[in-house]
Automatic annotation (TrEMBL):
Entry keyword Nucleotidyltransferase: no
InterPro entries, A to Z: Homeodomain-like_sf, HTH-type_TetR-like_transc_reg, HTH_TetR, Tet_transcr_reg_TetR-rel_C_sf, TetR_SbtR-like_C
GO molecular function, one term: transcription cis-regulatory region binding
The keyword Transcription appears for this protein: yes
Originating organism: Mycolicibacterium fluoranthenivorans
Official protein name in the record: Helix-turn-helix transcriptional regulator
Keyword tags: DNA-binding, Transcription, Transcription regulation
Matching Pfam families: TetR_C_43 (PF21597), TetR_N (PF00440)
Length: 202
């Protein structure tokens, strides 16, 4: 690749990562090209679709998302592993609005991303089965519960990250407290009334 083409590609990736982190994954490619200081045609030459760009921007973090679940699935203590996996996954969501959206979505991006999603589901299903068998987790707990949490957390992050940043870890802790029986879990304090008002006004 020519040096100027490589610079344009790198500029597009950097701009996309910044814009997605700030606003989520629905930002237009035209806006990303503008932020990168390149023409729309140049952007489309490197990334012919929004999905191609998203896959490139988030491939590394989606690998990490998958690795968190696979490590937890083979841990000696499945209950502690489940708690740590859910906490780490939701914390990963909270770092980036775009990533928050992707972790709560099955939007097709690329064959590589689809394989990561399949690997993640297999690991999470194993983790939940082992945790339920321990007798310390609700017998009806399933990967679907985690999917619902990730959807809720994504919306919460969009609304509260700037004004009530402790809201996400509190939601996760309360969710875990409801899932894991006979275990006292520390729950972060609730957001203050002014924080909630600011988040609702956003």
């Amino acid at each position: 690749m020519r040096a100027d083409a490589e610079r344009n590609r790198s500029a597009a990736l950097a701009a996309a990562e910044a814009v997605y982190a700030e606003h989520g994954v629905e930002v237009s490619l035209n806006e990303i090209a503008r932020r990168a200081g390149i023409g729309n045609a140049t952007l489309y030459r490197h990334f012919p679709s929004r999905e191609a760009l998203l896959s490139e921007v988030y491939a590394g973090q989606l690998e990490r998302y998958c690795a968190i679940a696979e490590t937890a699935a083979h841990a000696d203590d499945p209950v502690t592993a489940l708690r740590n996996c859910v906490t780490a996954t939701c914390a990963l969501q909270a770092t980036n609005r775009g990533l928050a959206d992707l972790l709560a979505s099955l939007r097709p991006l690329s064959p590589h991303v689809e394989e990561l999603r399949a690997r993640h589901y297999r690991a999470i299903a194993t983790l939940f089965r082992r945790a339920v068998r321990s007798g310390k987790v609700r017998v009806d707990a399933s990967p679907a519960d985690l999917a619902v949490l990730l959807i809720a957390n994504a919306g919460l992050i969009h609304r509260t990250a700037d004004h009530a940043p402790r809201s996400s870890p509190r939601l996760v802790a309360l969710w875990l407290a409801g899932l894991v029986s006979r275990e006292s879990l520390e729950v972060p304090p609730a957001p203050t009334d002014p924080q909630v008002r600011r988040a609702l006004d956003t």
